[in-house]
Amino acid sequence: MGHVACGLGGCDRRDALEAYAQLYLREEIQAEALVHNLPGFARFLPVAALFHGQVLNVASVARDAGVARNTVSGYLQILQDTLLAFTLPAYQARLRVREQKHPKLYWVDPGLPRAMKRQLGPVTAEERGALFEGGWRHS
Fold it and tell me: CA dist 72 to 57, 60, 69, 103, 123, Å?
């Protein structure tokens, strides 16, 4: 479900993740004025969450979120600057590579992409691999 801290008294992880997702938009993004188009960023988050543990194609994210490609690049940088996500560069075995390799996107907590997608129920079979792959950072 994720590793977002619940505090000493314990809490429901689902509630903690939902609250964190809302708090992130309100306090980190809106209050700090990191983006000019908050609704566009809010549309971007669930789309970016779909790419957790997947090869990141910025053009696909832009198309699915309905924002410009350059805007998505800026949004991804905001996720990295606020320490919510990171990219893992693609492995390149040779110095001369003709084909452009795309990095993979990982959220720092496997519960965060599920919270951003508002899918906090049981983990589906399609999610298991990416969530497991993204959870290695917490071991």
Answer: 10, 10, 5, 14, 27
Tens digits of pLDDT across the chain (139 residues)? 455 555 545 666 777 777 878 787 877 787 777 788 888 899 999 999 989 888 899 999 999 999 999 999 999 999 999 888 999 887 767 666 566 678 989 888 887 888 888 877 777 767 665 666 666 654 4
> What whole-number distance in Å separates Cα of residue 56 and Cα of residue 28?
24
- This prediction has a pTM of 0.76
